[in-house]
Amino acid sequence: MSTGTTTLQRWICESCGFIYEPEEGDPDGGIPPGTPFEEIPDSWFCPVCGARKRDFVPYED
């Protein structure tokens, strides 16, 4: 599997529509830029509405 210029999967919060961008991370939530969603701790929550990580689904353009 190539890890070249493929963009990381974005995830969307089903509660409020916030989109987690792996390239940006969530610095305020302790998630550094470049962190894949799968590597975020389960204790993380949506920075907008406070929904749990399990309330996010893969975002398709």
Fold and architecture overview:
By secondary structure, this protein is mainly beta. It has a single domain (11-58), classed as Rubrerythrin, domain 2. The chain has no helices and three strands. It has strands spanning 11-13, 19-20, 56-58. Strands 2-1-3 form a three-stranded antiparallel β-sheet, with no helix packed on it. β1 (11-13) and β2 (19-20) form a beta hairpin.
Any idea of the CATH topology? Rubrerythrin, domain 2
Share of helix among residues?
Answer: under 10%
Overall structural domain count: 1
Sequence of secondary-structure elements: EEE
Oligomer: single chain
The CATH level-2 architecture is identified as Single Sheet
Per DSSP, the total helix count is 0
Stretches where pLDDT is under 50 for at least 5 consecutive residues are none
Strand portion: 5-15%
Spatial arrangement of strands, main beta sheet: 2-1-3
Report the count of strand segments: 3
The helix/strand class is mainly beta
CATH class: Mainly Beta
Tell me the radius of gyration.
11 Å
Topology:
Elements: E1 11-13, E2 19-20, E3 56-58
Antiparallel strand pairs: 1-2, 1-3
Brief descriptors of the model:
three-stranded antiparallel β-sheet, 3 strands, Rubrerythrin, domain 2
Could you write a compact summary of the structure shown?
This protein is mostly beta strands and 61 residues long. Helices cover 0% and strands 13% of the residues. The protein has strands at residues 11-13, 19-20, 56-58.
